[in-house]
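Q: Given only this backbone (268 positions), what sequence would you predict?
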């Protein structure tokens, strides 16, 4: 599924109390209704549901993994922020401190927010998480990658010290965080000199996300194995669209703060 925000062109709600609690309302409930519909009406496999997104969609990816850990098997977040980092208490609010990478908490604090807020009392299995961020991202700071790693390693019960570190592609640093049995629970990619432009078309980034989710098998896949995508929300990068970083930041703020029934302002 490829959901879009309502109103169109705005960001997902990842900042309100409703969105950050299971079945609390707002966008996450709408996305869950789509998933349930696909399962009930089209034979969707409830044991093969995954979520991914970029920018605002990456934030929503983390929200969905926190609110509905019993639904998803894994998720891939491109240029996002930790769950609850963008909290403002308002629908589609803008949290400048989080966007600028100024929210710094311990792994236990980040993990605790998932356990106590997303789905309080849940003790079952949780989805594996893949995280991506560029070091030159001036829209959503690269600092958020480290904070997200701390959050999900704590939630998934693995050490914050990487089990392995390598560079599968020039300028990529990949860290993996594994259980004692060798299962990778968290996988993080830090991309040197990349801005707010992931995944890059023509790269193997999407393929790496598919691999992480276990959807790269060569055997024919059952038709009901579906991926729920965390939506659009990517902001034009300066090198791609000729807009300055400040203008791009203001553009994202306008999208995230768009009120229902009001169309977002176009960008040049």
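A: Predicted residues:
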């Amino acid at each position: 599924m490829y959901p879009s925000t309502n109103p169109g062109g705005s960001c997902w709600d990842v900042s309100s109390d409703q969105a950050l609690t299971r079945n609390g309302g707002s966008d996450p409930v709408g996305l869950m209704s789509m998933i349930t519909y696909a399962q009930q009406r089209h034979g969707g496999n409830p044991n093969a549901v995954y979520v991914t997104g970029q920018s605002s969609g990456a934030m929503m990816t983390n929200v969905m993994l926190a609110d509905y850990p019993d639904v998803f098997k894994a998720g891939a977040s491109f240029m996002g922020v930790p769950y609850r980092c963008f909290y403002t208490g308002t629908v589609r609010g803008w949290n400048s401190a989080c966007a600028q990478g100024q929210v710094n908490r311990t792994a236990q604090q980040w993990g605790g927010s998932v356990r106590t807020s997303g789905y309080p009392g849940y003790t079952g299995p949780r989805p594996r998480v893949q995280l991506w961020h560029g070091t030159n991202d001036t829209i959503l700071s690269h600092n958020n990658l480290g904070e997200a790693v701390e959050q999900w390693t704590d939630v998934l019960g693995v050490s914050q010290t990487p089990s392995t570190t390598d560079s599968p592609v020039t300028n990529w640093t990949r860290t993996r965080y594994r259980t004692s049995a060798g299962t990778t629970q968290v996988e993080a990619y830090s991309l040197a000199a990349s801005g707010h432009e992931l995944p890059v078309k023509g790269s193997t980034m999407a393929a790496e996300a598919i691999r992480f989710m276990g959807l790269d098998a060569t055997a024919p896949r059952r038709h009901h194995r579906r991926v729920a995508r965390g939506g659009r929300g990517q902001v034009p990068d300066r090198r791609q669209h000729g807009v300055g970083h400040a203008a791009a930041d203001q553009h994202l703020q306008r999208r995230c703060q768009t009120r229902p029934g009001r169309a977002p302002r176009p960008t040049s």
